[in-house]
Amino acid sequence: MNELMALFLSMALINNFILSKFLGLCPFFGVSKKLKSAVSMGMAVLLVMVAASVVSWLLYSYLLEPFGVAYMATVIFILVIASLVQIMELAIRRTNIQLYNALGIYLPLITTNCAVLGVTFINVREGFTLVETLVSAVGAGVGFTLVLAMMSGIRERLEIADVPVSFKGMPVAFLVAMLLGISFLAFGGMV
Amino acid sequence: MSVIENLKKGIMKSNPVLVLLLGLCPALAVSTSLDNAIGMTAAVMFVLINANLIVSIIRKWTPDRVRIPVFIVIIASLVTIVDLTIQAFSPDLSKSLGIFLPLIVVNCIILGRAEAFASKNSITDSLADALGMGLGFGLALLIISFFRQLLGTGTLELFGQTLLEVPGLLDNPMAIFILPMGAFLVMACLLAFLRYMGVIANE
Amino acid sequence: MDKNTFKEDIFPILFLTIVVCIAVVALTATNGFTEKLIEDNKNEAIKENLAVLFPEMDDLQVNETIGVYTILKEGNTIGYAFEAVGQGYGGDISIMVGLENTSMAEDDIIVVGITIIDAAGETPGLGQLITEESFLEQFVGVNANDMMLSKNGGQIDAISGATISSSAVVDAIHDTMLAKAELIRELLEGGI
User: Fold this and answer.
1) Are residues B66 and C33, on separate chains, in Cβ contact within 8 Å?
2) Which chains are within 8 Å of B by 3+ CB pairs?
């Protein structure tokens, strides 16, 4: 139990995908202007991450590895993610139109989100068990959502701040990311 | 647009990393040393050029409905080929690029160029576009890793050769530049500088 | 068959199938080319690491069931080696550990030396300092009981600023060497 908790904390905070692994930077800078859309995007990523991790882990352990075709992993994983995103989009649209309106536009973007493909690779490369895979996917997703939400909160305030012209917009967003990263260093001693 | 223009636009006017802000993940993650930057650029170039070439060749027969899945399969296969080749011939490079090598699949530059350019343009134009975008990506990576390696370690090394040593920095390097935060800092300053100089437009 | 059905429904699927088939063929061919080279690289890396630890080694035996390399010189065992894996700052750190040929009793497990096989996930200039000679040479001749960081009463000084990476290495070696020593003891007693 303790080890799973440590894994969760490590994935969510210490080795945060955005701030220390550089995974999922495109949505981080693209969708982090409004708090509401940042949280929706984070939730959508979390959902796909968990589903993709479990499916790709099962495929890798019971199909690719036993048949000695582990080199197909990249192709298979990206196809798994692309189809999961499609299926989820359909399923959410059929069952919960409110949720679809909130998450809908972000789902297609997730196919090319390297955080999702990244977590599936990390799971098989580190040789995680199914339970560990689940925990690491949830941890990565929670950490992603957390940082995305923090960033958007800060950027909402930055909109009205007096920033030098050359730094306005993206450059100052990078500076904020740096400061967030430094503050997240403090989690390093937790595990 | 002429071939030269297609080539040139990727390097500066619509530089994928510095202007379009695409492919940031690998650009920031592997820019800790010049060697990594060059290795990553070579891998991305190979995939980008071949993907643009193949997509452009089959563009007339590709049915619209399965366009994206077809592109993804092509790109993922090219990436796997590069991944295996680097593992076979340069295991050290493969180790230091880590998961960012297979993650080239989701590098927005590649799918973006296949979808936005190669699926609509001739083979020559697509090749020029890929070459330009690849060089632009490489240029950005080299600039970022130049500052990160120099300030973060005090030396500048290329393929095991020491190019430059800064005496004071060597003993007390500013380690933050090698840490992930350093990448954000360099990127922020670089963008602001390029805007200040008027190379890229302000927001 | 309606011509439209073919164009709208069947052709796209057919096209995708053909692309996938070509991709599979291309990948299988590439894998065929590179598989042996990649395998060779791995074995070569292991041999290189072992040669650093045991310069006089002229042969080695791989005992796959317990994951231990027996190092031989002119047919006699001169030591053992195994891989230890620690959870570093940014991923796994794998370490090759060499042990002296001793009785492997609990207070008689002595390190010949260690090399770092893979620390690519560690921060260059900080965590990656664990690959430097000044850190590695501290491990030479250390007994299992002293295989701890000096702040915990052991013999190994952590690299300042890289405590996580340092303790990952030390802890991994400590735990793995105890486990492997027991396996080696059983092996020598003919238990395995």
Assistant:
1) no
2) A, C
**Of A32, A24, A73, A69, which is closest to residue A49 (Cα–Cα)?**
A24
Report CA-CA distances (Å) from A149 to A9, A52, A144, C27: 18, 23, 9, 40
Contact B87 C120 (CB under 8 A): no
Q: Which residues from A are below 8 Å from B185, CB to CB?
A: 174-175, 178
pTM of the predicted model over 0.90? no
- Of the ranges A20-29, A105-114, B144-153, B187-196, which one carries the lowest mean pLDDT score? A105-114
Please enumerate in sequence order all residues whose Cβ is within 8 A of that of C32, keeping only pairs 6 or more positions apart, or say none: none
Is residue A190 scored above 70 in pLDDT? no
pLDDT digits (tens, 9 = 90+) for A161-187: 888 888 888 888 889 989 998 888 888
List the domain boundaries for chain A.
Answer: 2-189
* pLDDT band at C90; cut points 50, 70, 90: low
Give the model confidence (pLDDT) of B48-75 as tens digits: 999 999 988 888 887 877 888 888 889 9
Q: What is the pLDDT of residues A4-59, one digit of tens each?
A: 888 888 888 888 888 888 888 877 877 777 888 788 888 888 988 999 999 999 99
The encoded tokens of residue A129 equal 């068990």
Q: Do B202 and A20 touch (CB under 8 A)?
A: no
CB contact under 8 A, A79 and B102: no
Q: What angle do CA B132, B136, B139 make, to 5 degrees?
A: 135
Distance from CA of C133 to the nearest CA of B (A): 17
Return the percentage of chain C with pLDDT > 70, whole number: 94
Residues in chain C within 8 Å Cβ distance of B86: none
**Among B173, A73, B84, B115, residue whose Cα is nearest residue C31:** B84
- Whether residues A166 and B202 touch (CB distance < 8 A) is answered with yes
C181 within 8 A of C80, measured Cβ to Cβ: no
pLDDT band at B18 (very low <50, low <70, confident <90, very high): confident
Residues in chain A with CB shorter than 8 Å from the CB of C92 are 126
Neighbours of B171 (CB within 10 A): 8
Determine contact: B181 vs chain C, CB below 8 A: no
| Residue B48 tokens, joined | 């980008």
Output the pLDDT for position A104: 66
Which among A20, A21, A188 has CB closest to C164?
Answer: A188
Structure tokens at A170: 């993206």
What are the chain A neighbours of B69 within 8 Å (beta carbons)? 79, 82
Q: Where are the domains of chain B?
A: 3-148
Of A24, A75, A175, the CB nearest to B73: A75
Cβ neighbours around A5 below 10 Å, total: 12
Indicate the SS3 state at residue C23.
helix
**Nearest-CA distance C55 → chain A (Å):** 31
What's the ipTM?
0.85
The residues, any chain, with a CB within 8 Å of residue B15's CB and separated by 6 or more, are B136, B137, B139, B140, B200
Q: Is B105 within 8 Å of A78 when comparing Cβ atoms?
A: yes
Task: Measure the CA–CA gap between B178 and B182, rounded to whole angstroms.
Answer: 6
Q: Which residues of B touch C38 (CB under 8 A)?
A: 84, 87-88, 91
